[in-house]
Specification:
- The protein is an alpha+beta fold.
- It folds into two domains: 235 residues, GHMP Kinase, N-terminal domain (Ribosomal Protein S5, domain 2, 2-Layer Sandwich); 199 residues, Maf protein, CATH 3.90.950.10.
- The chain has eleven helices and 16 strands.
- Strands 11-10-12-13-14-15-16 form a seven-stranded mixed sheet. Strands 1-2-3-5-4 form a five-stranded mixed sheet. It has a four-stranded antiparallel sheet with strand order 7-6-8-9, with helices on both faces.
- The chain is globular.
């Protein structure tokens, strides 16, 4: 247990308040324990001289600490007439980190300046500046997208930062405060993207050296903390964009009468075609946009994965996106395989291997206890708007012997009593009429008109 009551792998409490200030294009107050930093993003229609005429933008950062952010008053740099070395190091770190996740060519010949002002310091001011600075940057970029100034989001992924310390007794702790930082034997700062890549790693043996194994242990702990910070960033960005649109009344720009179904499966996309055709929307799939990369499904429930796909693509490409996540839930297995249905038997396994594992797990389980559901969650997203989530399920039973050749996945084991058939024994028309996806679509149709009218306003 640490001095402030936290466990070794506990972060301090973190809050990110978006739109903290009135005037900047993006602003947040990030609070990490007792550390508080105001981060703002300012869009300027100019670039440094070395980029003029290069059709490329720039991201710059400035960092400062108010005189009484610390226990004793710190003299302002303006009074001294120069920026001290620590300030210069931190603002360069913040700028490098944020530039690493921005496609500067897509930004065009403009700059975004991130100002990070520490109003209260208790350790971790540089890492808080990066984490909060990214949210401010994202809010500013979304305004450029909404106004039609940018056609495509130049931000490639999230980035956040956290500290990890190793104390003199060898204990490794996450997110050090000032007291721990001043007494730590080893001090590490990790700057990591949402895809798990590192932009920067700073490690210093203050009172002792550290081994490779200890460094890797610190890295793994840092990654877990950063993943939590990225979740908080995304929540703040969604809330900030929602409030921005409510205040400024920006329309989607442009309102394209098309909707992207986040799949490369034409058969799956065709199930949505009749609904959206009736609404005047054209269906597109990822096959029409080969430049859109796959979004890693890191959620532990269906809704998280569906929202992750829909919101990531909608924000980056400024369009309406519908994404789904579906799978098999077996009651005897406490809802498993669930979101892991496609990789139940391992990442590289086949449908046959997944089915074999399922049957093995249900060996000696009576037929009456083999109840299951095919589940589908649909998430509909538009840039800066509150997303829509609907669900659908079909009830069934897992057989001991596969039946039928028309399906895939677990279809040949999933028996529907009302039809006296497995999903694999049904025709496409029969299956589409009663499937979990069909039921989710029915729910979507009920709420579509109200949702689309709200985002058009």
């Amino acid at each position: 247990m640490r001095k402030d009551g936290r466990k070794l792998n506990d972060m301090r409490e973190v809050t990110i308040e978006p739109n903290y200030l009135m005037h900047p294009e993006g602003s947040v107050l990030i609070t990490v324990g007792k550390t508080k930093v105001i981060c703002t993003a300012t869009v300027e229609n100019r670039v440094p001289h070395f980029l003029r005429g290069q059709h490329s933008g720039w991201v710059h950062a400035e960092y400062s600490m108010l005189p009484r952010a610390t226990q004793e008053r710190k003299q302002r740099d303006a009074v001294k007439g120069k920026i001290n070395g620590r300030t210069m190091e931190i603002q360069r770190l913040v700028a490098r980190s944020l530039r690493s996740i921005v496609d500067l060519e897509k930004l065009g010949e403009r700059s975004i300046v991130i100002d990070c002002d520490v109003i209260q310091a208790d350790g971790g001011t540089r890492t808080a500046s990066i984490t909060g600075g990214f949210v401010a940057l994202s809010l500013a970029v979304q305004q450029l997208l909404d106004q039609g100034i940018l056609k495509e989001n130049p931000i490639t992924e999230n980035i956040a930062a956290i500290s990890v310390g190793m104390m003199t007794d060898g204990q490794i702790v996450l997110d050090v405060d000032y007291f721990e930082d001043s007494s730590a034997a080893v001090d590490m700062n990790f700057v990591m993207t949402s895809s798990g890549n590192f932009s920067e790693i700073q490690g210093t043996g203050e009172k002792m050296s550290f081994s490779q194994d200890e460094m890797l242990e610190m890295m793994e702990l840092g990654k877990k903390g950063i993943n939590k910070l990225i979740d908080l960033q995304n929540q703040a960005i969604r809330e900030g964009n929602r409030l921005n649109h409510k205040m400024t009344n920006y329309p989607l720009n442009p309102i394209r009468k098309e909707i992207l179904i986040a799949t490369r499966n034409k058969g799956k996309a065709s199930e949505f075609e009749s609904l959206f055709a009736a609404k005047g929307f054209t269906i597109k799939t990822l096959l029409d946009y080969p430049e859109i990369p796959d979004v890693e499904e890191t959620g532990v429930i269906f809704a998280e994965n569906a929202l992750l796909k829909a919101e990531t693509i909608a924000a980056k490409f400024n369009m309406l996106v519908l994404a789904d996540d579906s799978g098999l839930k077996v009651d005897f297995l406490n809802g498993n395989p669930g979101v892991y249905s496609a990789r139940f038997a391992g990442e590289m396994k086949s449908d046959a291997a997944n089915n074999a594992k399922l049957l093995h797990e249900l060996t000696h389980v009576p037929a009456a206890e083999r109840t299951a559901q095919f589940h589908c969650t649909l998430a509909l997203a538009a840039p800066g708007r509150e997303s829509l989530v609907v669900e659908g399920e079909v009830e069934g039973q897992i057989l001991s012997i596969p039946r039928g050749d028309n399906g895939f996945g677990y279809d040949s084991l999933f028996y529907v009593a009302d039809k006296d058939k497995t999903m694999a024994e049904m025709t496409e028309e029969e299956k589409n009429a009663i499937s979990h996806r069909a039921k989710a679509l029915q729910q979507l149709e009920k709420v579509w008109d109200e949702w689309i009218s709200n985002i058009d306003r």
